[in-house]
Design goal:
The structure holds 2 protein chains of 2 kinds.
Chain A (H helix, E strand, L loop, with lengths): L3 H7 L2 E4 L5 E4 L2 E4 L5 H10 L9 E4 L16 H17 L2 E3 L9 H7 L8 E4 L13 E4 L2 H10 L1 E4 L3 E8 L8 H12 L7 E6 L1 H4 L3 H9 L8 E3 L4 H7 L8 H11 L12 E6 L6 E3 L7 E3 L12 H14 L14 E4 L1 H4 L2 H11 L9 E4 L4 H9 L2 H7 L25 E4 L14 E4 L2 H10 L8
Parallel strand pairs in A: 3-4, 3-6, 4-5, 6-7, 9-10, 9-12, 10-11, 15-16, 15-17, 17-18
Antiparallel strand pairs in A: 1-2, 2-8, 13-14
Chain B lengths: L5 E9 L6 H4 L19 H4 L21 E4 L11 H9 L3 E4 L4 H8 L4 E4 L2 H13 L4 E5 L4 E4 L4 E4 L4 H9 L3 H6 L2 H9 L6
Parallel strand pairs in B: 1-2, 2-3, 3-4
Antiparallel strand pairs in B: 1-5, 5-6, 6-7
The chains are: A alpha/beta, B alpha/beta.
């Protein structure tokens, strides 16, 4: 009678606070340089050590350059923040994949690729896209810095149990439609706050058919409709991905783990607080037209008129379109753009680069496009080279940068200039997200590839 | 953490929906390693023009409105988990945020920094916007113990939800770490039966 979520949550309850939250045990804690320094400072001022140092993994990703990583970071404040992480790792005795480490990369890319993220775990990080790890059948969610400090101090967190929602994608995706399009479609239907208060399980044929990379993209974007997290029940695809990864269990322990992981699925008679069903075959390549990921439409669609009749809704809608320089009733297909960004914890994995390279093979980058191709980790970049994708990209006029969060949040120098349009495979089209005044159009790696070679918003399935 | 009991204050209206944490504090201001100083950058891209001069159209630059309470459109605090958003709001001087809907992570971050996020009905919210539009010196009273919000302009009240544990923390100025550390024996007992040993 239990959902997958219930099974994992219940297995991690340390105690319940009377009339309050659950004290939940955390198996894996990831940290990066931006949301952790104040937490470590808090520990220091309380005279505490990290309670279970082996369960916390650190990486530098948000605030690092994507060129010349072998040289000191030029921006003094950024360098200080990264150095602070390095020093905290040393002082508190934590595993750290800093700049120059072959395992360095975006936290939500390196966790899974090294086998740190496993089915059945509770996983947190001071980063809202921690929902990514739910692709493995884990309860994974983003937390604030005070909560980072709680986990460092006690390996526990206090959380109110969320409601459960199942989103089922029936049927098959059409050719050229990806996990990113599923996610943007779903958010456009449910709105940017439509899953707030819920933890989502994704199910159905189209989800089962996704690779682990695709499932990570889908779960990653759960937060963009307000959900605490999203998850997919582990199956043979999950086990095949994990088998042999460095920190995944090996040998006898592997067999034992797989036997347990096979029990991690919602019971047939499990009841969810909310059920949503979509027909995967109806989904087209998607793009956003506004300033939140819920403002998305099919690539050949027309920007709608504002919904609702209260002043705040209409104001917010108009403010978004003004910022983007768009009007209701306008079509975006064929519109010229300036930048293409391939990367981020949403779409910075090997499969994303395969998709992009496969599309641009034998074609040329459009002259009006500046393209930033940023692998999610050094291991992704190595794999790109091993598969010869770098040569295909080079022949088509593209260059690979070094890994990091890059233009997804533009904390480093990778900023889209004010007023310019960027087709981005990242996760947020908020005002100023990719740089002050930058105008972001979220899309899949295929739509990004098509824009990169035509210089315009182009349907990759045509 | 500072204690919170009751508060009567004028309020600042922000009738915009889906105010995400990238607007509350843009990413380029997240490079600091302490919790201080973020109030100066609260709503930076709305508050200042490109040259860094105050934008007279933005409400925080309008001397007509002031107070320790921010009243905002629905789905406030969506997006990034950055607690810097709560630090910026607290640093600026806000102690209460009123909206008809909050994003989950922001809500926790606010509570962990002594900021009280209060959910009211759409109707009550729109009434607050109308009242402050007519009288910028309109006030709200927040009674945490009784969980009641009063629009002093017309005497309308609405009760609000907060879990008993968090309420106690705010009233007494306690934080979660004190609580968690007092449960160390329970954590160690849990670990003996833990599934994961890798």
């Amino acid at each position: 009678m239990k959902t997958l979520f219930d099974k994992i949550w219940d297995a991690h309850i340390v105690t319940e606070v009377k009339d309050g939250p659950t004290q939940l045990y955390i198996d894996r804690h990831y940290c990066h340089e931006v949301t952790s320094p104040q937490a470590f400072a808090g520990l220091r001022s309380r005279g505490l050590k990290v309670f279970r140092p082996k369960q916390t993994i650190l990486t530098a990703d948000h605030n690092i350059p994507t060129m010349d990583q072998d040289k000191p970071i030029r921006d003094e404040v950024s360098r200080f923040q990264v150095d602070t992480l390095t020093n905290n790792a040393r002082e508190f005795g934590l595993t750290y994949y800093g700049l120059g480490n072959p395992k360095n990369g975006i936290v939500h890319v390196i966790g899974p690729e090294n086998g740190y993220t496993l089915p059945g775990m509770t996983i947190v990080c001071g980063d809202s896209h921690t929902s990514t790890h739910g692709a493995f059948g884990a309860i994974a969610f983003g937390i604030g810095t005070s909560e980072v400090e709680m986990v460092l101090a006690s390996q526990c967190i206090l959380q109110t149990r969320p409601k459960t929602m199942r989103i089922t994608f029936r049927g098959k995706l059409n050719e050229g439609v990806t996990a990113k399009d599923m996610a943007l479609y779903m958010i456009s239907q449910l709105t940017t706050g439509g899953a707030t208060g819920y933890f989502v399980e994704y199910a159905g044929e189209a989800v089962e058919n996704l690779s682990m990379e695709g499932r990570m993209t889908l779960c990653n974007l759960s937060i963009e409709m307000g959900a605490r997290g999203g998850m997919v029940a582990p199956d043979e695809t999950t086990f095949a991905y994990l088998n042999g990864r460095e920190f995944a269990p090996q040998g006898e322990k592997w067999d034992e783990a797989v036997a347990y992981w096979k029990t991690l699925k919602s019971d047939e008679d499990a009841v969810f607080d909310k059920e949503v069903v979509f027909d995967a075959s109806q989904i087209k390549p998607m793009i956003t037209y506004g300033t939140n990921p819920g403002m998305a439409m099919p690539i050949d669609g027309t920007i709608p008129a504002p919904e609702g009749n209260d002043a705040a809704s209409i104001n917010s809608f108009e403010k978004a379109l003004n910022y983007m320089g768009f009007k209701p009733g306008e079509k975006l297909e064929g519109k010229a753009v300036d930048y293409v960004f391939l990367g981020s914890c949403t779409n910075g994995r090997i499969e994303d680069f395969r998709m992009f390279a496969n599309y641009v093979k034998g074609k040329k980058k459009a002259d009006n496009i500046t393209a930033w191709l940023v692998p999610g980790s050094w291991q992704v970049r190595k794999q790109i080279e091993a598969e010869g994708l770098d040569k295909i990209l080079k022949e088509a006029g593209f260059e690979l940068r070094q890994p990091g969060c890059s233009a997804c949040l533009a904390m480093n120098d990778d900023k889209i200039p004010a007023g310019k349009y960027a087709v981005s495979t990242s996760n947020r089209n908020f005002e100023g997200r990719q740089g002050p005044g930058a105008r972001t159009i979220l899309a899949s790696p295929l739509v990004a590839a098509a824009a990169a070679v035509t210089g315009r918003i182009t349907d990759p399935t045509h | 953490m500072e204690k919170f009991q009751t508060l009567t204050s004028t309020y600042v209206p922000l009738p915009i929906e889906n105010v995400d944490t990238d607007q509350i504090i843009p990413a380029r201001f997240l490079k600091a390693t302490t919790r201080e100083g973020f109030g100066n950058y609260l709503f930076a891209d709305w508050r200042y023009d490109k040259a860094g001069n105050p934008n007279p159209d933005f409400v925080l630059n309008n001397p007509t409105y002031s107070g320790q309470i921010l009243v905002a459109g629905k789905n406030f605090g969506s997006g990034s988990s950055r607690e810097h958003a709560a630090w910026a709001l607290a640093g600026y001087g806000f102690r209460v945020i009123v909206s008809s809907f909050f994003a989950d992570i922001f809500k926790n971050n606010a509570l962990n920094n002594g900021i009280l996020p209060i959910v009211v009905s759409e109707d009550f919210l729109n009434d607050l916007f109308e009242c402050v539009n007519k009288n910028p010196k309109a006030t709200i009273t927040v009674n945490l113990e009784g969980q009641i919000l009063t629009n002093n302009e017309n005497g309308r009240t609405e009760s609000f939800e907060i879990n008993a544990y968090k309420k106690e923390c705010l009233l007494k100025g306690l934080d979660d770490i004190d609580f968690l550390l007092s449960n160390k024996d329970k954590i160690e007992a849990y670990e003996k039966n833990r599934i994961f040993h890798y």
